[in-house]
Amino acid sequence: MNGQLSTTPGELKQQPLKLGTRRSALAMAQSGMVAEQVSKVTGRPVELVEITTYGDTSREHLSQIGGTGVFVSALRDALLDGRIDLAVHSLKDLPTAAPENLLLAAVPEREDVRDALVARDGLTLDELAEKCSAHGEDRPARIGTGSSRRMAQLNAYAAARGLAIETVPIRGNVDTRIGYVRSGELDAVVLAAAGLSRLGRLGEATQLLGFDLMLPAPGQGALAVECAAHDTRLAAALAALDHAPTRAAVVAERALLAALEVGCSAPVGALATRVGVQGPATELRLEGVVGTPDGTTLLQMSATGPLSLDGSFEQQASALGRTLAARMLAEGAAGLMGERVL
Ligand SMILES: NCc1[nH]cc(CCC(=O)O)c1CC(=O)O
């Protein structure tokens, strides 16, 4: 809190906190939700400050601009030079490397982690593929997604069931992507349920994809609240927004991603869930998947480890992620991820 130490506590209370956000509808929605909670725990008004990121302005495919962190660095720059006091990110967009001079002050409770299908005519994936191949249409169902993780799992599922689908690389915000279905250009798109839910549009999902069909991205459905490392008073207040079971899960998922040595645009799915929940001492089960975007090869494995939520659970969670990564690499995971073509 630079230069504010001479003000009285009363004056300090009135200073609005500046919360940096991207300008997309989804970013604004989730920033607004966090702003409300931050205002509650700090007793201070919170003001949203719009920051334009490279990921918002670039027309290129994410795989071509590097994927990792394109949505994040402009917000982090604003934090580091003091234009904003805190930033809200989608956790799945955060690079796994810990940034210098910044703190992950809170990971609030996670939303629905699943991916959702938004298809024409209210159809599920199976129904859609059947409808497109029958009725004289005689063609594969065209399903839009810019994510190699989603492509790999969709194609593997379709191959196993003999469904005819074609994955079509797209990008853009939620509205743009759903627009491809409404215009008839595509038969369906796949989006994170959490994003739809935060926009009040979960009703447009025609199927929530089960984990047997699709594992989410590491950190999907969770938010990250960041502040400057020197802002220790704010960090202490923001800790009230932290949800330990969510943090444990995302730490394990991101440790897996980091140990596989790939970025957030890689075809990696991961989901950590608590099993045998009995008080704070429990176990964490981590499931991971990597594959080729064409779905011809998919490697899916899981590992379980102890978790004591009242203790040093971040070390336990990240150890579990590294353990599973080592096992997956021993089974040839690196070779699958090498084919990183969209
Ligand atoms: N990559 C963009 C992005 N980052 C976070 C979400 C959704 C919200 C979340 O997972 O928390 C989305 C959109 C999507 O994948 O459909």
UniProtKB/TrEMBL annotation:
Source organism of the structure: Peterkaempfera bronchialis
Keyword Cell division assigned: no
Keyword annotations of the record: Porphyrin biosynthesis, Transferase
Name the record gives this protein: Porphobilinogen deaminase
Cofactor binding summary note: Binds 1 dipyrromethane group covalently.
Reaction it catalyzes: 4 porphobilinogen + H2O = hydroxymethylbilane + 4 NH4(+)
Enzyme class, UniProt record, top EC level: transferase
Gene field: hemC
Porphobilinogen deaminase C-terminal domain ranges (all copies): 249-329
GO molecular function terms attached to this record: hydroxymethylbilane synthase activity
One GO term describing the cellular component: cytoplasm
Entry's family note: Belongs to the HMBS family.
Function: Tetrapolymerization of the monopyrrole PBG into the hydroxymethylbilane pre-uroporphyrinogen in several discrete steps.
